[in-house]
Design brief:
Elements: H1 6-19, H2 25-41, H3 53-69, E1 75-80, E2 85-90, E3 93-98, H4 104-112, H5 129-136, H6 165-169, H7 200-209, E4 217-222, E5 227-233, H8 239-247, E6 266-269, E7 275-277, H9 283-289, E8 292-295, E9 298-301, H10 306-315, E10 320-323, H11 339-343, E11 354-355, E12 357-360, H12 376-384, E13 386-387, E14 392-397, E15 400-405, E16 409-416, E17 418-422, E18 425-429, E19 435-439, E20 444-445, E21 453-457, E22 462-467, E23 470-476
Parallel strand pairs: 11-13
Antiparallel strand pairs: 1-2, 2-3, 4-5, 4-8, 5-6, 6-7, 8-9, 10-12, 14-15, 15-16, 17-18, 18-19, 19-20, 21-22, 22-23
Helix pairs in contact: 1-2, 2-3, 2-5, 3-4
């Protein structure tokens, strides 16, 4: 058996994520070589908590389905139902997998096709997994800059939730654990400090290695209005602890039934006072809006400075960054910054002076990053960089008020009598002495200036406009808004 190291596994994971679905014979062979290497690695005890059978067998099933729906010239497949073995052949190289999952769409496609039978050619490719990968991919595979994994375009991925846990919760990364969730953990370890205190070196270490997918319990914090956000993962046997941890923030929160919780998902309390799961697609949004983490009795800023973001992006081409200055704006297209895009940031932009960059580490490349490898001048720059957490400020010009966002952008010009901001909505008093509601995320008014007062109700999850004795619903809260 050839020596397989962590770098081989990471490269194989990139190949599967970025080359799927295949359209050429050589691409199919690269995918087969990558899956063959992962299939060999999963059998080694030292990698048993990094690679899972669910991923390897599940992706082999995805590849079979893809080749049945979109055949590739020169590639042949065969599923031996009697022995539960699936064979792939490309460029006269045969790779086989035992016991791949048979989901409904795949079974239907196998019934529709008449496949040429294959027999095992007797070659044990797992023993030469690294050699085979280097043969079809001579140079280490690096994801093209600005390109994202294409696995999500496959229509059948969504029916594999029970098989491809990787696809659902880890953004197609190969870095998962066979036993990722410990049976129990202490939910009383995290407590909100009474006063704001920050160790900047602890913040830097935390920002470099924090990954919500790897955490079972955490407390995020929104500094602008001093609001904590408790998040806990359901493991299947910690229901009472989860309920206690989330409900102690407010006894009016609805107690969710155990049967409605899904093992492995992260849960928090929504603005509607409901226990809700955080979708994988919303994790970055949650982090950018609550960009501090409570750790060891201190607050840790999860944002990095611009020079450190550039250093990491150049060192790890597969790493991406998001910017808290624009990620939450619904009117602006969300941008995932590569090294090239970071270089395009204007010289005098606030983005270069403040800590506003959060890494999106889908492949876990920062999991073992050594902070000592950072140049000393970058650490000094980080220590001096400004913290940024107050996106919206009410600015007064004379007797009139407006809203300025991100220090430089006027959402509302100073033309209004009074403005009061609460979370991501603002109550605006016009010159006619009537109130209206302005959405800070959508950057538009959601009502006209016609109300005597505006009321918030978290119990019903609405913003009401009161006009005389009539009460109208102006906004219904979304659990992702706050």
């Amino acid at each position: 058996m050839q020596h397989i190291d962590f770098g081989h596994i990471l490269e194989a994971g990139r190949i599967v994520a970025y080359l799927f679905p295949p359209r050429r014979e050589l691409t199919v062979l690269k995918l087969l070589a990558a899956l063959n290497l992962l299939n060999a690695a999963v059998k080694q005890e030292r990698f048993s908590k990094i690679v899972t059978y669910d991923y390897v067998k599940g992706m082999a099933a995805c590849l079979l389905y893809s080749l049945l729906v979109w055949p590739v010239r020169g590639v042949s497949v065969w599923h031996d139902r009697e022995h539960s073995i699936t064979y792939f052949r490309a460029k006269d190289i045969q790779v086989s997998f035992h016991y791949i999952p048979m989901f409904k769409l795949l079974r239907n496609e196998l019934r529709r096709h008449t496949l040429e039978a294959q027999k095992w050619d007797g070659k044990r490719l797992q023993e030469v997994a690294v050699e085979l990968l280097r043969r079809v991919q001579p140079r280490p595979f690096v994801a093209p800059p600005g390109r994202s994994p294409k696995l999500s375009i496959l229509p059948f991925v969504f029916v594999l939730d029970n098989v491809l846990s990787l696809v659902r919760s880890h953004g197609h990364s190969v870095l998962v654990h066979s036993e990722p969730y410990p049976p129990t953990y202490n939910l009383t370890d995290i407590r909100l400090p009474e006063t704001f205190c920050e160790d900047k070196m602890l913040s830097l270490r935390t920002a470099l290695t924090f990954n919500m997918n790897n955490e079972n319990i955490m407390m995020l914090y929104r500094r602008k209005d001093r609001r904590p956000m408790r998040i806990v993962r359901y493991t299947g046997n910690n229901y009472d602890e989860l309920i206690f941890y989330l409900l102690k923030t407010n006894p009016k929160i609805w107690r969710r039934r155990k049967m409605t919780l899904e093992v492995g998902r992260l849960y928090c309390v929504s603005p509607l006072m409901r226990i809700r799961a955080i979708a994988p697609s919303q994790q970055i949004l949650v982090t950018t809006r609550n960009s501090y983490l409570v750790k060891d009795g201190r607050f840790c800023n999860l944002c990095l400075s611009y020079p450190i973001a550039c250093f990491l992006a150049r060192r790890y081409p597969e790493l991406r960054f998001v910017k808290t200055l624009n990620y939450n704006r619904l009117k602006v297209r969300r941008v995932y910054y590569t090294y090239r895009k970071l270089m395009d940031v204007p010289l005098h932009s606030l983005s270069r002076r403040a800590k506003v960059w959060i890494p999106v580490d889908r492949f876990g490349v920062l999991g073992s990053f050594d902070i000592n490898s950072l140049p000393h001048d970058l650490i000094e720059d980080y220590m001096k960089a400004d913290d940024f957490y107050q996106e919206y400020k009410v600015m007064k010009v004379g007797r009139l008020k407006g809203i300025r966002a991100y220090y430089y952008h006027w959402l509302l010009p100073p033309l209004f009598t009074d403005i009061k901001i609460r979370n991501y909505h603002a109550k605006v008093l016009g010159r006619n002495h009537k109130w209206a509601v302005y959405s800070l995320c959508a950057e538009c008014f959601v009502s006209r200036f016609m109300y005597d007062s505006i009321r918030y109700s978290f119990r019903s999850g609405c913003v009401y406009g009161i006009r005389g004795e009539k009460k109208e619903i102006l906004v219904r809260f979304n659990y992702n808004e706050y």
